[in-house]
User: Fold these one by one.
Assistant:
Number 1:
Amino acid sequence: MKKVAWITDTAAQLDEAFIQKHDVHVLPLSVVFSDGTYRESIDLTQEEFYDKLRAAKGSPKTSQPAIGEMLALYEKLEAEGYDLAIALHLSSGLSGTIESARSAAEMTDFKVYPIDSKIGSFPMVKMIEAGNELLANGKEVEEVVAALEGMTAKAHLSFIPSSLNQLHKSGRVSGTQNFLSNLLNIKLVITFVDGVTIMKEKVRSIKRAKNNVTEALRADMAASTVTEVAAIHCNNAADAEIWKNELLQEFPDLKVEVVQLSVCVGVHAGEGTTGLSWLAK
């Protein structure tokens, strides 16, 4: 049986127990503040990031892992006796990480299968779990890669920024849009479509925005099997927990967990953001 390593990036927000159980190697995304570059989960905790974000005059930038860092990891894995690696990365619509992985894979003799998740966060975790199960059941690596690529179309992630302040700072919305949004309590629903984020809805009140996202979940549950959902957030676990409990009241058999989003999402969406994410079967 071939020894397979899993590679991903910090967009997946894996905990240490998951990393150890599934033999995952995590490449950090980075945030660039005026005083330097910080690697997510290594140089900067979630709490430290949001402290710095609140104090920052401008908006920080995000940065992907360098090709050299990827090549060093591939060489390390080969030296440790791995036969190959499956590299599942953040959507190419948000980051150049997957393109760097593809370029690095072409520069080494070590076999790497880069996969564009076309999303981030919770669905990436579920894809890695599913891939490990397929390997354990005797599937060939090529079959596993094909299965994971097929799963990307069944992944969903929608979020509601608490305000447009950070989107304005990062250049995603104009000052006028930001002003009117705050004045009129307008909430945006942003969702992934084919690997890129789009504004799905613009509504008055957080209640309407949440119902819009929940309605998408209801539709997916009616059309396919959804057994697990993540209430996602940017440093707003309290509101994510409320949403979790609301879902459990409506769907008592659903497994719902609260999941923190990558700080690289926080750079653009801002502190207080909440949403839902799932992977249909």
Number 2:
Amino acid sequence: MTLIIGLTGSIASGKSTVSLMFHDLNVPVIDADKISREVVNPHEDAYNKIVDTFGNSILQDDKTIDRAKLGEIIFNDHVMREKLNNIVHPAVRERMLAKRDALVKAGVPTVVLDIPLLFESNLTHLVDKTLVISVTESVQLTRLMTRNGYNEQEARQRIQSQIPITEKVKMADAVIDNNGTKQETYEQLEQLLQQWRDLTTEN
């Protein structure tokens, strides 16, 4: 029986680092962000629907979507943002599930779905266990300012646009504390994976 883990966190919590650790442990990771970029490539259904909805003015010379232009359109327009989400999200879900089901069929023991908005988009029914990568807000703030060059106000705005990590922690089946070193995080992950695999084997 395959164990499906839903991996999530918040901005600058270190979810990508843990995602790479899963790779190191030979656990396949299906990344929602990567798929969301794939499904808007030219000739994809979602791409055609986006162009039909927003017009050719959002295209670059090579016919790929100009993300900055599209971002400007949806940034302050709730209706247009909703339209875009209604095109992209189902396409991403469909592709994620196809990849998940292929791995399950192949008998892979553990599969990770890396979904940044796992709780916000109510997608927990797609997985067996939810795993949240957690850091304190001060660590989150420092990392975000260092990584993206934001000032404190910009960093706080981005943090506050998501469900707080403390809330996600309450909803999760397990939490990895990523305030320390990479080695400490890796050890927590190894231990948790072993526990969950043992439980799956017992059942």
Number 3:
Amino acid sequence: MKAQTMSARVSHSLIDPIISPKLQSLYPHLRIPSGFPPEGIVLMGHLSAIVGAVGLAFSTTYWWAGIVGAAGIVGNHLADCVDGTHARRTGQCRNGGELLDHFTDPLSFAYYLIGIGVACGRLDLAIVAVVCLFAIAVLTNIKAKLVGEFTLSRFGPTEFKTLLSLIGISTAALFWLPQSIVTPGQFLLFTYAALIVAGLVQLPIQLIRSVKEVNQNGAAADTTEWQLK
């Protein structure tokens, strides 16, 4: 959902221009009542994310769980694509809806990462993954506030959701491969560890770039004192 006071939005996403317009084009076919609040769509998307996380958590136990995980992630992204469309077309754009949308997004990703950690039996890795996730999310939001531009990188939320969906489907497929050289659990643990390593490598790089960018393009530094009331 869009708000008038929101920072300018710039997306460098590789696949978002391909996937998101197609999902947004489904909006007329969903027949969402005009009086239905966009916040309700955000909530439905969040519930779908929980379903996806639960599916991922059982993806090494039941073959169908990985499919459920992928479906939940896709449902979450569909809601994320149409909530703003619904808000604009029905004249229900609200700052509260914008806040709710951005509040639930990182939580959804946290659910997915925890779900995979449960499936792998590695909650220690899940802690590292979630800390890294929220560090990147906080960095992105603070930079947006300072430079007035909310920027999504080439590997952004859409790419991450797509990758997680493919991981869920691939884990399910491994149950059906005869004499597979890798078990679903081994595959999931390997991809999980690779994701975490990639995140830990990217975090300091993004931090350094963000500090340079806010110094160069941000507004004048805030020199005011805290007002104690």
